[in-house]
Every structure is written in structure tokens, then in C-alpha cells.
Fold these 4 entries.
Entry 1:
Amino acid sequence: MPGVRNRTALVTGGAQGIGEAVAKRLAADGANVAVLDLQEEAAQRVADEITAAGGTAVAVGADVSKREQVESAVDAVVAMYGGLHILVNNAGVLRDNLLFKMTDDDWTLVMEVHLRGAFLCSQIAQKHMVEAKYGRIVSMSSTSALGNRGQANYSTAKAGLQGLAKTLAIELGPFGITSTAIAPGFVETAMTKATAERIGTTIEQMREATASVVPVRRGGVPDDIANAVAFFAAEESGYVTGQVLYVDGGRGLL
């Protein structure tokens, strides 16, 4: 099966958590992976670990909300590997607060990273995909897109990414490019651990609370999301586009 073998993938926010797991999974499946992150040293660690495991990877430092930085990053990746076939829009930040406490900066930063970042990366990457008449764009949404207390900014951004994914599917489909989104539920990462601490609980309690209600009776881990990305990114998934896959242990059924 071709899968992602010999394709080049760019994973934003690839230095930790879900992004790190996605980068490592795509590399293990045979892709050349560019690990892009605002923290280039952290991205380099992931790239080094991929290389040590026998894969092919490079670290790229960039702020996804800055057009010139994204353009430079994509140009460097294309120059190194000869093309860009897979984009995973994963970069994100949290600035949770109740509406009456949320600042302009809380709102703007989340929109800039999640929405502007995905827009810029998709717009710049699609040029190379159109030329190749092949591409896979996977954007990371969230179950918070359905609404979540204290996340007016994040929920709005994650809902927006679903709209972006569907629109790109319509516009880019004729050029052999698919666009999809993944909406994770609870996934245990450094970001969710920080969220737990901020609201006065622990990651263990958050995990147990999730496991007690979802049908699969456990919390999610980054590899669960990486598996979904690998499916959407594969060559064989060319007839799947405009879809949003909720990877939440079945919580949406309740």
C-alpha cells in the first residue's frame, strides 16, 4: 500500500503532544517529515528522534501566523525534498477564560494561531500541491467546536477550522487535493495537563472523569489522533474529503 511513503509532510506545532505523535507516525509510515514549531529547539529534538528511529525529518522554526515565516519554511522544505504533499495544521494555543474575563489579547492570539495559521499554511502549501496534482490537508479541530465553557475563543477557532476544511475540499478537490479535519476529545498532552492545573484539578482526575463516561472507558492519547491523520493523509484516502472525524472515545454518542 502506498500510504504516505515517499511523500513530504509538514506538521505544524510538531514539537510536542499531538503534533509530535503525528510527525513520528507519518515518518514511521515512510514520509519525509518537516517538524515545524515556534520552538525550533523542541522541533529539532523530535526530528532527531525520528532520524534515530530510521526516518527522515527536518526541524523548521516558524510562527504560523506570520506569512513571511511560513513562506520561508515551505520554500525550505520544498527545496530539500522536492515537493510538499501533506500539510497537517496542528499548531495551537490555549487562552481559556469565561467570556466576561476574556481579554482582547486572549481572543486575538487564539484566532491568529489557529485560524490565520491554518489559512496561511494551507494557502502557501496548496500552490505546490496544485502543481503536483496531489495533496492532503488535515486540520486539527476539537470537540470544543461544539461549545465548551471558558473557551469562547478556542471553540470559535476550532469550529472555524471545520468550515475551512470543508471549503478547501470544494476548491481544491479538482486538483487532486483532499481537505479534512479531525476533532479530538480529551487527549492527554502537556497542554491538557496545564489546563487541568489551571482549573484546579489534575491530569489524572481529568483522565478518570473522561474514562468514566465515554463508551471506550479510557482517555485519549496522541497516538489515537496520529492514527486518524495517517488515514486521511494516505494516498488511498483520495475519495475522502470535506469530512470531520470526531476522535473522542464515543463521547459524541452520549
Entry 2:
Amino acid sequence: MTDILMPKATAVWLVDNTSLTFEQIAAFCGLHPLEVRGIADGDVARDIRGADPLVNGQLTREELDKAQNDETYRMQAVVSRHAELLKPAKAPPKYTPVSRRQDRPDAIAWFVRNHPEVTDAQIAKMLGTTKSTIESVRNRTHWNSANIKAVDPVTLGLVGQLQLDDVVKKAADKKAKDDLKRGGPTIQEIEAEPAEPEFVPDAVERRGAEPTAESVFGKRD
């Protein structure tokens, strides 16, 4: 079924001006039958003015008459010339004002110096630049290399802080996973040093006085 313009307003008109069933109206307008019943009871879309689908070219008189004569028939909407306007527009490519384009090399240099884990593709998408420009800044072959200074892209106004944090986090997580797959360096266990023997002080030996001849035989006169 083709989406129609102003479905609730169309349902209001069909409820008030036709003998269609709630199911037929719901199928045509893309609503739930209970919602159409609510419209009929005045509980839903109370302040919405009805829109005639015959006048705005979304329904033919033949389709309406056929549906009113057969409760099982489901009406087919006419493709509106305004239907293309309802489709979500594709987001336009990132545009950087001319006044800030000269700041891109400074932002690229900041990424190269501080976050080498961020890929060139991510930098190019975020800053609206090209991989060749990033490579020239990295290799210092850029025509203005002498004047390029590493500056935070948030400070330059090229990206928002949340966007920058998200890109850096994703790049760091990916690098950690890649390192793990390649069997990167792991933390080695520290070998335990042999325990020193417990110090036990030597027992103090109390030695008595050495016996002398005088003490054994007595003193001679």
C-alpha cells in the first residue's frame, strides 16, 4: 500500500463522509482499526480537520464506490506527485567553510602525533579531507609543512568533542583486538625471589672461668 499524505486527516474525512468500515479506512490510511474507531468516537484526532482524498488526488471515485459496495475490498491509493517529498533526504557530504579549510592540516598533524591508531579513512571522513593530504602531512611533503602545527580539531571547530571521543575510542578498541589476534606482547609473570632464611640469633654460651694450678693445688708459701 502507498503511503498517503495526512493519514489521520484523511481518516477523519472518510469516517464522516463515507460508509466504509473501520478496517477499510485503517488499511487505506495505514492506521490501526482501533485508532479509526477512536476517531469515530471523538477520542482521537478531535481537533484535526478532515482532508478529502478525492480532492487532493489520493483516491478515485471508482475506488471509493467499489469499497463502499464491498466491505472486503481494500482501496488502492493513487501515487501522489508529492510522495517523493516524503522520502528522507540523503545526508549531504560534510562541508567545511573555506575559512577553516586551512586548519585541516593542523588537525591532521594532531591525529598523526597523538592518535596514530585512528585510520586515514576515519580522519578523512571526519575532517572532510583526502587520504593523499593526510599522507603528505604525515611525510612532511605538504606544500605548507613549515607552518603546520598540531592542533586539536575540536579547538579548531572542525568536529565536536563527542564525535572525536567516539572515533578515538573505536580506533583504540580495534587496535587492541588486532593486537590480540596477532598475539601481541603479554604481561609476563614476575619470578618470585627465593626467600631469605629466617634469622635466628645464636645462643649465648656462658663459659666458666678456666681452672688454674693455684685454684687446684693452693697457693705456695
Entry 3:
Amino acid sequence: MLHRHLKAWLIGLTLAAVVSDSMLLPFYPHFFATVFGVTNPQHVGLYLSASCLAVILALPLWARLVRRTGVLNLLVYTQVAAGALCLLCYWTDNLTWFWLISMAMLVFKASYLLIYPLILASEHPDRHGGTIGLLSVVVHLGGIAGAVLGGAVLQWFEPRQIFLVMAASDVLQTATCLYLLRSDSPTPAGPEARPDPTPPGTPPPPTVPFRLPLGLVMFAFYFSAYLIRPFFVRHWEHVSDHTHELVSGLVFAIPAGVAVLALWINLRRATPTPGTGIVPALVLAAAGLLVQGLDQPGYVLLGRVLFGWGLFQATVRLDQLMFALSTLERYAADYSTLNLFQQMGVLVAALTAGALVESFGLANPFVVGAAGLVVTAGAYMALVRPLLTLPTPDPARSPS
């Protein structure tokens, strides 16, 4: 069992990293237009796709390296490198160099994603639902803080100063890792931190070949959900006639606020069986996307609420299912594999969003995203739900 003191610090590390990474997400069109004079929507989509590709390529490498170093030792070095590259992003005024430096920065920042499987590997499976929900809310809260902080910086300061805030966050994360390594709190390196109670000589239980079918569902889900992200602020400003970046950041963050309420309600209910409630959550999120695409501010706000509730429930239940089908020693590897599908979905969404906006207007990604979530629900029913009837390993006991 992960020490409560260490778990709180690890969650705090995750929050700091998410806030840092979220500051520019709603505002990349503004950033490129203001700093580099680039207004082409496809350029924004291409940049976001390249960002996802950097994470896709980096995370499996960090997952391999962490077996030798441990998560906290690895983070000390990667966050120092990320902070230095943030400073270079602030100083450069050349678009090509900005691309190269920021991609390298994201490669090092991707290492913090390994905190997630570390926490889950050290928790009892009965607590996975609540822990996944808590971590999901932490990500959403980080999204709120990041969007508001990013909007405030863009409103009152020079846009590139966002990278100074990012560098400060990396310094804070590095200092936290050093403190934890030098403190008396146990600092597990990975799944091996919890002893395996399986008696010696016990044959391994059958495993379920879930990675590809669940990965395809994850790809479709993240593609559909993230399709509206790059240009949501532009859509909101178009339908509401409000161009205040701080207000736009708050509207962008509404689903994150809904996620906090959803976690509070979920914690007062019995932990759901893995796989339950996924289809209704996807359908509700699809309805929220359609409502957001309407040309009225009130409908956009209502759609953000519906979308936020469905998005949170679907995310938590899909992640819970991932760890339920995996085994203890495979947590980091399986998470890395499925994260690849998730990031690929975000990558393709960013590329597609730019093309859709340029060809069909700002409202089109909402329609395509809603259709994609309905397709995701069908893919889950056809590809993943049948796996739940097969004998599954006990993740707390089974070896890989």
C-alpha cells in the first residue's frame, strides 16, 4: 500500500505538471498569431499533433528506463531538462527553433505520466475506482487552473512569459522529488513496491488479450473528445462576442468543474463494476458536443456541463477497466501501450480539427466529435464488452 504522505505528494506533482501543460492549450491560435504572426488553423493543428507524437515516442522509452532508475530519480533529471528548455522557448523568436525546442521540452515533460501507474500499482484493486476518479479530477482541476492562469498571462503580460511560469513549475517539481527522495517516506520504484502474495510455483492465471481492442476504443474516444479543443475558444468568442481571455479560459474549464462535482457524487456511491456505465457516459458526452455546437452562448454553456459529466464518467470507467484487465507487473507497460492509442487519438484530432475548421467552419468539429463518440460506444460494445465475460487475472496477485 502506498504511504498516504507519499501519495499526497505524488498527486501534488501531477497537479503541478498538469497546470503547467494546460496553460496554452486553449490559446494556441492566439499564441501563434500574436508571437509569430501565424493565423493558419492547420498550423495550430499540426503543432498539437506533433506535440502528441513527441509524447507517444517518449513515454515508452521512459517506461523502460524507469525500471532501472525509479520514478522519482528519473523525474529529477527530466524536469530539470524540461525547465531549461522552457527558458529557451521563452527566449527564441524564430518559429522553426520554437518548434524544435518545444518538442524536446515535451519529450522530457512526458516522464511525469509515469506517476499515474506508480500510484495505481501500489493501491489495492478495490480502491482503483476511487483513486482513478481522484486522479482524473486532479487532471481536471489542473486544467481549470492552467486555463485561468494562461488566460491571465495572455491578458496582462507578453504571451511568451507563459514559458517562465512553466519553468518555475518544473523547478517546483524537481525540488519536490528531491525532498521525497531524502525524506523518510517510502519511495517505491514501481509495481514491485507491493509484494506479490502468490505462493511460489502457482501457475499464472489466463490473461485477456485486451490491449488492441481497448486501445482502438481509447483512440476513438480521445479523437472524438479532443476534436473541439484547439478551436473551442475561437468558437466561444464567435457565438458570445466576448474576447476576454480570462473569461474564455473559465468557459473552457467548465467540464473540469463538473468533474469535481462528479467525483464528489461518485465517492458517495458504491464502486461500479469495471465496464459498467461506459455507453451512457459516451452518449451523454456526444449530446453535450452537439449542444455546444449551436450558435447561442447559453447552449454552449449547457453543452459544456453535459459534456463534462459524460467525459469524466467515461474516462474514469475506461481507465478502471484498463487496470482491471491488466496485471500488477504489467501496469506501467500496459498503461504506456494504451496511452499510445490515447495520444494517437489526440494527434489525429488536432490534425483533423484544423482541416475541418478551415473547410467547414468552427462548429463542424462538434458534430464530427459527437458522431465519433457514438461510434466509440458501438466499438466498445463490439470489441471490449465481450472480453468481460472471459476469466480475468487478479491484478493484485498475478504475475506477468
Entry 4:
Amino acid sequence: MATTGSARHIPGFNAPSVGFEDPFAMLQACHERVLRTLALLARLRAHVLQHGADDDARQAARDVLRYFDIAAPLHHQDEELHVFPLLQADASADVRALVLRLQQDHVCMTADWAAARAPLQALVEHGQDADGATPLFRFGPQDDAALDRFVSRYGDHIAAEEGMAYPAAMRLLPPATLAAMGREMAARRVVG
């Protein structure tokens, strides 16, 4: 498994270079990062089957945890504050119904993440044996079900947002509102 401390070091794992001046490009870049992190999770699961809880597996699990603990909630907040209210107020009935589903997805995704997070945290905390050997670690059937549910819901959610919600919102937002949206998104990410 090709991890050396961070997902940024995985070949082909380069963050898209967009800024907050184009908030919808940033939202879509976040989706790309979600999909890359989910792909890392898939590789991690395969790796654990072959190699157990070695250093690479534990680091990959840390990377997945970090992304979905920190970045994903900010992304959901961006949508909840800037995209969904606009669509609820001004979009067609079909889009408003989709927004209700997307909002419910966010609630379910939070619960899905709590269930998926537990086995990843257990993997991170699964240290080496006293003799330094890589210990046996396996995801159980409930763990696999939780991870599968999390991955599946995210994929469907992203497709609905990019296929219908984002295009509808982009048609409704004037440039000045887009600029303010981007500034607010950036401000939420300022540390300290």
C-alpha cells in the first residue's frame, strides 16, 4: 500500500487546485477528494486482508479518519448554509424534493460515519505484537456492512448533488452572492 504519512503522498492523489473564488468548483473538488478518500478506504480494506494492521494500514486509516472527521463536515456545512436554503426557496418542486433527500442524507451520513469510524479507529489503535510482528486484524461482518453503507450512500449523494442540485443552484446565484459564498466558505476553514 502506497502511503507514506498522508494521502497527499499517494501517487495520483493530488488535490485539485481550485480556490474559494469559485465556490461550486470548490464543492466539486471536495467531492473529488471524497471519492479519492473512499478509494483509499477500498485499498485499505484489501490491504488489511493481505497484510493485517501494519504501519501502512494504520496510516491509511488515519488519513481516512482525518478527512471524514474534519473536511467532510465542513463540506456538508457549506451545502447546508449556501446551497440547500437557496434551492428550498427558489427551485422547482423536483429540486426541492431532492434537497429534502440530500438533507436527510447528511443526517444518515453522520450516523453512517459513526459506524464506519469505529473499525477504522480500532485499526489505528491496533499496535504491533511484543515481538514487533504485524498483528492480525480483520474487519468483521458488521464493520464491512457499515463501511459498505457509508461508501454507497456517499456515491449516490454526490451523483445527485452534481447532477441536479449544483446546476440548479448555480443558475439561481448572481456573481456577487457567489463571491460572498466563497469568502464565507474560506473563513470557516481558517484555523486559529
